[in-house]
Specification:
The chain is an alpha/beta fold and about 575 residues long. About 25% of the residues lie in helices and about 20% in strands.
Length: about 575
């Protein structure tokens, strides 16, 4: 039988690139040097076989990209609001370079911090401290936006929307900073906005009101990201509440940062949650294994766990290479038993500081994976309702735009391109016994291209067979006899979708065996609809709909229910039957 896998990597391998205080970038002070620094940084990350970069683009109400709404960051040009020379745009260069290595780029933003640290700063006129002076407060050594002021929340959402309008990103990311980390005995000075709330009839306690302010912001950003088919992720503090789970001690993020990641996961607002489990096995009251087990228990097919590790502590007691390898092993075990995607590192600079850390990374990730694992509920091309998309299995688009992807892969495989610059989808299959694969496309348009490739990675794809004619109703068709244990990539694209056109891709898998293979990893299949016949079939239909020039995806599925996070779908024996759904704008 077949294991049908979501196109993507088996593991999310991510790094946070911090720009606040120039932790990871930039280390140089001219645009030309910073440009080369970024090129070298991305290549280095690719050389160590990571597949996702979470780049800090907003550290304190500023921008490390060309924003229409916020000033250029002082961490880039030393002066708030001063643009880099020669039109240099770090985020643009990052995206361009990351595409060369098939690395996904996420924009990491701090939603509320308005100034980091005690250094006096003269901010540009369009900085939030100057635009909203009555609602940006000094707290500890920082400046902080008031999450309860609707004008600042609107500004944040508008800033994110402007960013997504102008940059080809895979997602938006927040870290653990919501309300500021508390100073003992000093309350956050938001009394004015809370008084206004109660005067208008609000009945929540101050703590619940603060959490509601954060929750409403998270929900708004989630809807904004998901409407575009993008991933929204948050990396909360590693402890939810003291005593959760039993024996855990530390900061109460629910009660002091007013962050409620359990609600965000439950409501499917975030696609990845990345608790910062920065403790060693020697930590008292912060048991790594207990915390990992607890966080993994929250994971589901719409919100995947990934784990943040603190590489900046490498070499300290409890943070040796062997300690990190053990943590890696525990996280990878969770990938087998829960919806766990992978691992995040902080900080990259520290990881590159010694030959020992580099050797550890090479041992942990000795080869490349294709793309980061992403939750099933993300409607990757946008325009698809996430609840409906949960019904889709083994279906995804690639993690960046179809047009750029098409050109890259067409040049990679050195043959007649299967990909076109309108849209392309792909599926990953692996055979474990004797099946014949039949793939066909048909619909109300022409110009489709179809192909099957093999290779250990995207860089080694080899074309096996492409368009064949097989029946008047099909625009293209392939019959293919796979080799057991080999991975194959099925690719479809079109260059002539019209506003009313669509393409349906059908994939049929047939076996001559009368019994399921004993070696298959699919779960046991019994029930009133099952029979031990000699045909195994599964049909997946993908409808590509062109609406105003934008390609969106809808799923039409049969005979399969997603069972495990490891991207395996069970096959049912018996005669073919169809389950169809139509998911549109």
């Amino acid at each position: 039988m077949w294991s049908v896998l979501l196109a993507g990597a088996e593991e999310l391998r991510a790094v946070w690139i911090a720009t606040v205080y120039n932790i990871d970038f930039p280390k140089t002070n001219t645009a030309s040097k910073q440009r080369q620094e970024m090129v070298d940084l991305v290549k280095q990350i690719a050389d160590f076989n990571l597949n996702a970069i979470f780049f800090q683009v907003r550290t304190e109400g500023d921008a490390l990209y060309n924003s229409k709404l916020e000033p250029w960051s002082r961490f880039l040009t030393k002066t708030s609001g001063r643009a880099p020379q020669d039109g240099f745009d770090p985020l643009k260069v990052l995206i361009e370079e990351a595409k060369k290595y098939k690395i996904a780029v996420h924009a990491w933003m701090n939603p509320y911090r308005a100034k980091a640290g005690s250094t006096a700063v003269e901010f540009a006129p369009n900085h939030i401290s100057n635009r909203f002076p009555d609602y940006v407060y000094p707290y500890n050594k920082d400046l902080w936006s008031d999450p309860g002021y609707e004008g600042l929340q609107d500004h944040l959402v508008n800033t994110i929307e402007d960013l997504l309008d102008n940059y080809e990103l895979r997602g938006i990311h927040f870290d653990d900073y919501f309300y500021p980390y508390p100073v003992p005995g000093v309350d956050f000075p938001d009394g004015k906005t809370f008084t206004a709330y109660t005067a208008a009839g609000g009945t929540l306690s101050k703590a619940d009101w603060r959490r509601d302010n954060v929750n409403r912001m998270v929900e708004r950003v989630s809807k904004l990201a998901h409407a575009r088919g993008l991933v929204f992720s948050i990396s909360p503090f590693g402890i939810y509440r003291p005593g959760v789970p039993e024996g855990i001690k530390g900061l109460d993020q629910y009660g002091t940062l007013y962050a409620d990641p359990l609600l965000w996961i439950k409501n499917k607002w975030i696609d990845h949650y990345i608790p910062q489990l920065y403790w060693s096995f020697k930590a008292v009251g912060q048991d790594f294994r207990k915390l990992l087990d607890w966080w993994a228990g929250l994971s589901n097919k719409c919100s995947y766990l990934a784990v943040g590790l603190d590489g900046s502590k490498f070499g300290q007691d409890g943070y040796t290479a062997e300690d990190f390898k053990t943590q890696f092993s525990l996280i990878r075990d969770k990938m087998q038993s829960s919806f766990t995607a992978g691992i995040f590192w902080f900080s990259w600079k520290k990881m590159m500081d010694s030959a020992e850390t580099q050797a550890m990374l090479r041992e942990l990730w000795p080869s490349k994976d294709l793309f980061p694992v992403e939750p099933q509920c993300v409607s990757f091309l946008g325009g698809v309702d996430n609840d409906a998309f949960e019904k889709a299995i083994a279906v995804t688009s690639l993690p960046y735009s179809s047009s750029s992807l098409s050109n890259e892969l067409a040049s990679t495989q050195k043959g007649e391109p299967v990909f076109t610059n309108i849209g392309s989808l792909w599926w990953l299959f692996q055979a474990s016994s004797d099946e014949t694969l039949t793939v066909s496309t048909k619909g109300s348009t022409t110009g489709t291209k179809l192909g099957i490739y093999t290779g250990s990675s995207l860089d080694t794809l080899k074309s096996l067979v492409q368009n064949q004619a097989c029946g008047s109703e099909s625009f293209s068709c392939i019959d293919f006899q796979p080799s057991p244990g080999t991975r194959y990539y099925i690719v479809v694209g079109s260059n002539s979708l019209s506003n009313s056109g669509n393409i349906t891709l059908s994939i049929s898998l047939k076996s001559s065996k009368s019994e399921p293979s004993a070696t298959t990893s699919s779960p046991s299949r019994t029930g009133p609809g099952d029979s031990k016949e000699n045909k195994l079939k599964k049909i997946l239909g993908i409808v590509l709909i062109s609406v105003g020039g934008a390609v969106i995806v809808a799923a039409v599925l049969a005979l399969a229910v997603r069972r495990r996070r490891r991207h395996q779908a069970s096959l049912l024996t018996g005669t073919e039957s169809k389950y169809a759904g139509s998911y549109k704008y």
